[in-house]
Specification:
alpha+beta, 5-stranded antiparallel β-sheet, elongated
Amino acid sequence: MPGLYFEEFEVGRKFSHPIRRTVTEADNVFFSALTHNPAALHLDEEYCRTETEFGQRVVNSCFTLGLMVGISVGETTLGTTVANLGWDEVRFPKPVFHGDTLHIESEVLEIRASSSRPNNGIVVFVHRAFNQRNELVASCKRSALMIRKPK
């Protein structure tokens, strides 16, 4: 199992996730369609070229958030998490465009035992996504309910 158990995390531990991903036009269009988001900012190239400061379509931020957290799973929570408890402080300081290649870093901010579930603990991560120019494009805190090591 590639994910870590609650006891294997320590505050301050950092992960540079090896998977990188180039975001495509198909990713953006399919995700926007699947989530019923018809915003011209994501779908209408001509509108974006003439009516926005970006001059091109912007990738749906919910896709960016999902990709950022998804890439982190393999080294952190795959098979060892019970549930996500929440995403906080979600930020998108720069837009993501078609063709941007993202890489992800994660850091453990907090670890605490669950007061209501003795077989679990809570790990709070900060995830950060960077584009190919190493510009921060997304970040969030994620609270995960984790499985304790079997005895």
